[in-house]
Amino acid sequence: MISTGSRPLTAYGSRMADMKTQIILRPFDPASDFRGWVELRNAIYPHNPVSVESVRFHWDTLDQRRFHRERHLALDHAAARLVGSAGFSHEPEMFHPDKYVCHVYVHPDSQGRGIGTQLWEWLQGRLRDRGAVLARCGVWENHPHAVAFAAHRGFREKRRAWQSILEVHNVDLGGLAYRWDRVATQGIVLTTLTDELERDAECLPKLYTLSNEALRHTPLPDVPTDPPYEMFYQWIMESPRRLPQAFFIAADGARYVGVSFLEKGDEEGTILQGLTATDPEYMRRGIAWALKLNTVKYAQENGYKRIKTWNDTENQPMLSINLRLGFQPLPATITMEREFER
Questions:
Q1: Which fold has domain 163-331?
Q2: Please, what is the angle between helix 287-301 and helix 177-184, to 10°?
Q3: pLDDT in tens, 296-326
Q4: Residue 96 CA from chain centroid, whole number
Q5: Closest by CA position to 124, among listed 98, 153, 160, 147
Q6: Would strands 270-278 and 134-140 be described as parallel, antiparallel, or unpaired?
Q7: How far apart are CA 206 and CA 257, in angstroms?
Q8: CATH says 10-132 is which class?
Q9: How far apart are CA 115 and CA 122, in angstroms?
Q10: Phi/psi of residue 9, nearest 5 degrees
Q11: By the 8 A CB rule, do 73 and 82 touch?
């Protein structure tokens, strides 16, 4: 349940005669609101659930000395139940002081009642107060009402990313073993984060460097920036989703030249694919293929039924690997952007 004990920031509706539902809008309270917010979010996206633990982790690891974030909740004025949420924040891996990623969520049972419009009024006002020059959001293409909502408020499509799923029992690793052999003959060793943390004191700084370099060669909506090392450390070492034994690293001697890792999911039988990347100097040598085969092997040997991943539609090299492995694309996530005049 959502706490309603704090004083409402404002109550919309009384001065908006065309709105069907009055809401109380108040700041998100990390001490009591995570469970309700996760239930709201999962009701909207039931096929991609998240846990309270993982959401809390990402909230706690944002360095608020460097990055700004705001989130408010909408409660039905009459029933005092959570019906929506709006918020915005900086993006550490695409940081610009006046650009933000934002969301407007309305519970499926409460959509079509003017709640989203009221949430957008608050969100737009706060973005303008902050001097935003751009806001970015993500909507599913199979949620046409959400696409239309964003478009009506000035957002335009920037790019798309496919979600796709691999049923791991369909992959014949024996028939693909030659891809491991190709990498081995180059003297490149495939290892894990578990082993490297024990072997190499510079493991995490080296992964940080590789990850940042990979971002510069990955299709993104904006210019990539290096997140703070402290945040990177937390993502790798403290995440509730972490699986260090399924975090695969390609090494050429002491140099890390590729990475592909899996994370725990919140769906029965499903594991999540994280970043797969290769050092630009080592591209087109089969390293990404070998690393991806390691992730499939791990999933098969540990009882997972499927791997779920996301790929930008402009990332043709990775899309090619995934399609040839047997990943089946699902409806895309559309990144939409709106510019603001100062």
A1: Aminopeptidase (3.40.630)
A2: 130
A3: 999 999 999 999 999 998 888 899 999 999 9
A4: 18
A5: 153
A6: unpaired
A7: 10
A8: alpha beta
A9: 11
A10: -65, -45
A11: yes
Could you tell me if 296 and 276 are in contact, meaning their C-beta atoms sit under 8 angstroms apart?
no
- Give the DSSP per-residue string, 245-300: GGEEEEEETTEEEEEEEEEE-SSTTEEEEEEEEE-GGGTTSSHHHHHHHHHHHHHH
- Residue 78 buriedness (CB in 10 A; 0-12 / 13-18 / 19+): exposed
Q: Which residues contact 52 (CB under 8 A, 6 or more apart)?
A: 34, 35, 38
The residue behind tokens 């490297």 is 196
Provide the whole-model pTM.
Answer: 0.90
- Can 10-132 and 163-331 be said to share one CATH topology? yes
Cα gap 166→326, rounded to integer Å: 6
Classify the C-alpha dihedral 241-244-249-252 as positive or negative. Answer: positive
Q: How confident is residue 160, by pLDDT bands cut at 50, 70 and 90?
A: very high
Tokens of 110: 């409460």
Task: Answer yes or no: are the C-beta atoms of 214 and 315 closer than 8 Å.
Answer: no
pLDDT tens by residue, 29-69: 999 999 999 999 999 999 999 999 999 999 999 999 999 99
Mean pLDDT value of segment 75-102 = 94
Burial class for 301, CB neighbours closer than 10 Å (0-12, 13-18, 19+): exposed
Cα separation, 280 vs 257, in Å, equals: 8
Residue whose C-alpha is closest to residue 316's, from 173, 219, 192? 219
- In sequence order, what are the residues at sequence separation of 6 or more whose Cβ sits closer than 8 angstroms to the Cβ of residue 320? none
Question: Per-domain residue ranges for the chain?
Answer: 10-132, 163-331
| Listed residue (63, 51, 64) closest to 240, CA to CA | 51
